């Protein structure tokens, strides 16, 4: 999933800020150490001088050995380490302390974007969609069974709406708890306002806290983005950045509310099949009945879901309407 130019610039400005901060903090540590142990400054100058002399020698007459240089620098490095330890400094006191040691706060490892860049992209998308604010309210801590009736029954199972909600809640918690141990997917279905989106937000909140890459889309926004990608030219730099298929968890919310056509049906099948192939977890929520889902998106799509997703049905009265009658409580 390609970022727009302004989004890319926002992330790169943050990397520039990090690099400047690392340089400032390193310079401050250097000054502190050099004031306490002047010999450390001398060692730095000697290493720089040796390197410059060896480079000039190689350029002028081809003499001088890189191995010899490494030996001389190693001797000075050992002396520096002994001085640091002898004066109560950590071993890495005169080294840069990067937030991400893999890319050294550049965002790239070689020519490829670092995993921290991937997380930054996801964080930016969440921030710009205000999903962070939603997750502060919609999470497991704020999930309430009081909205579910003890008298409304699921005819197929005989369980009440509240018992059904508890089963779905437990399944969602197990999904989070076992996320790194086993590959799994969830399909949440039921009528409008019974807590499907809330439960998917609970899952997203917990996984984001453990630094997983979670991507949330309403069905309309997902297919709009897929259409934009399909009908516009994609650069080489974007080829490996298709997070829709590669993020740790993709949440597709309110499937069935978008304008369904052959493109949408085909893209949904490809998206589900691709993520299954890559063993990347997906959570889908829909208001559609199972028989209507199959008719809307094709039998092969429903077959993929039925055989690879845990199906969780929620029942009950519309919670949003209940809250309206209670004055928004």
Task: Provide an overview of this structure.
The chain is α/β, with parallel strands linked by helices and 329 residues long. It contains 13 helices and 7 strands. It starts with a helix and ends with a helix. Helices cover 57% and strands 9% of the residues. The strands form 2 sheets. Strands 4-5-6-3-7 form a 5-stranded parallel β-sheet, with helices on both faces. A two-stranded antiparallel ribbon has the order 1-2. It is elongated. A hairpin with a 2-residue loop joins strand 1 and strand 2. Helix 1 packs across helix 2 and helix 6 runs parallel beside helix 7.
Give the helices and strands, then pairings.
Elements: H1 5-36, H2 38-61, H3 66-86, E1 108-109, E2 112-113, H4 115-129, H5 131-137, H6 161-177, E3 186-189, H7 196-209, E4 214-218, H8 219-230, H9 243-246, E5 249-255, H10 262-278, E6 281-286, H11 290-297, H12 299-308, E7 310-313, H13 319-325
Parallel strand pairs: 3-6, 3-7, 4-5, 5-6
Antiparallel strand pairs: 1-2
Structural class: alpha/beta
Q: Report on the biggest sheet.
A: 5 strands, parallel
Unreliable runs, pLDDT <50, ≥5 residues? Answer: 236-241
Physical arrangement of strands within the biggest beta sheet? 4-5-6-3-7
């Amino acid at each position: 999933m390609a970022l727009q130019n302004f989004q890319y610039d926002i992330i790169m400005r943050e990397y520039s800020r990090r690099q400047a901060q690392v340089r400032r903090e390193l310079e401050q540590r250097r000054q502190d150490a050099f004031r306490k142990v002047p010999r450390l400054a001398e060692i730095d100058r000697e290493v720089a001088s040796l390197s410059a002399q060896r480079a000039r020698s190689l350029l002028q007459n081809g003499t001088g050995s890189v191995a010899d240089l490494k030996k001389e620098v190693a001797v000075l490095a050992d002396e520096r380490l002994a001085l640091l330890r002898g004066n109560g400094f950590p071993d890495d006191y005169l080294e840069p302390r990067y937030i991400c040691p893999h890319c050294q706060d550049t965002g790239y490892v070689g020519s490829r974007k670092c995993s921290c860049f991937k997380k930054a992209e996801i964080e930016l998308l969440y921030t710009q969609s205000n999903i962070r604010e939603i997750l502060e309210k919609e999470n497991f801590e704020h999930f309430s069974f009081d909205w579910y009736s003890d008298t409304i029954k699921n005819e197929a199972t005989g369980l009440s709406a509240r018992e059904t909600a508890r089963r779905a809640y437990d399944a969602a918690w197990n999904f989070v708890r076992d996320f790194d141990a086993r590959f799994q997917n969830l399909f949440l279905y039921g009528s409008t306002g019974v807590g499907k989106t809330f439960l998917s937000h609970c899952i997203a909140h917990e996984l984001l806290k453990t630094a997983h890459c979670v991507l949330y889309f309403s069905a309309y926004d997902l297919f709009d983005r897929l259409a934009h990608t399909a009908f516009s030219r994609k650069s080489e730099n974007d080829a490996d950045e298709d997070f829709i298929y590669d993020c740790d968890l993709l949440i597709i919310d309110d499937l069935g509310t978008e304008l369904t056509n052959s493109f949408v049906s085909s893209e949904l099948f490809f998206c589900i099949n691709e993520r299954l192939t890559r063993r990347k977890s997906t959570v889908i929520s829909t208001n559609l009945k199972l028989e209507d889902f199959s008719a809307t998106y094709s039998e092969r799509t429903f077959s993929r879901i039925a055989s690879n997703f845990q199906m969780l049905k929620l029942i009950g009265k519309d919670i949003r309407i209940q809250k309206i009658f209670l004055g928004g409580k």
